[in-house]
Design a protein that fits this description.
By secondary structure, this protein is mainly beta. Helix content is about 5%, strand content about 35%. It has a single domain, classed as Sandwich (Jelly Rolls). The chain is globular.
Amino acid sequence: MSFAPRLLSPLLLAAPLFGCGTAPPPPPLDPTSPTPSKAPLEIAGDAPSPPQAHTKQIAAADCSAASAPLPAPFLGPAPPGLAAWYRFEETDGPVLDSSGHGHHGAATSSGLVRGAPGRVGRGLSFSGGHVRVPSSPGLDFTTAATIELWVRIAPELNERLTVGSTVSRGTGESDDNVTMQASCGGIQLIFSRASTGTTNVGSDCGVLPVCAWTHVAYVNDGRTLALYINGALTATYKGGFLGPLQSDLFIGRRAQGIFPFAGTMDEILWWREARTQAQICGDAGGRWSDGRCLLRP
């Protein structure tokens, strides 16, 4: 299945954010792009001073029901192409990069629960805190990109006008950036180059169930940007807009301090290659059979 997201014009990218509701009206579609089969998630604003409702320190809900833990996606050395791997198994100190490339992160002293129940062992629960990983060419997407993670949103991120940033490099304010965010129970990823333009793919609202684990994967092979939810292809659009980035990697908010994430994340995989759907299924602990990804309950 393939449908095009609404394109976000430069004006809209600098405007106050709005979510998945009916007001304000959506931006016009690019006349050269196919008509989407259904309305995708739309996150259209990264203003330096957005409304307070978008930046409040939202607390993660008590999503205490635990899922049966999955095994780690890899045993032994990390595969080639994996630039960073955040497992969140630590209960204090740095957030370690398990890829072996040394892209460790610093966690804030508040607004996080270290060692929270994860999808694979422990996870990291967010209620206003974040992790910051120093910028490095080793984290740049030059020819291809895949970002995977397990996410469990709190009820706040099922609301229409509340946005939580999962992973991001750059501000999203007319700069070179890669930003992923959740809102209205949906997910969106944007690739932007200040000099050439932007592309994005978002899901429908409501595809991320509250207080339940969902595996999210985005693949950009330079030609196509694809979204996979629980190993299933969900949406595609034009890819590209890859290149070096000067900014740090933030987990749990944007660089400028907006869009704090509420919920839990686990097993962030940051690849400098395009993973196949079967590989993504395996990374999620599933079994690829007859063109389908069969995930464990």
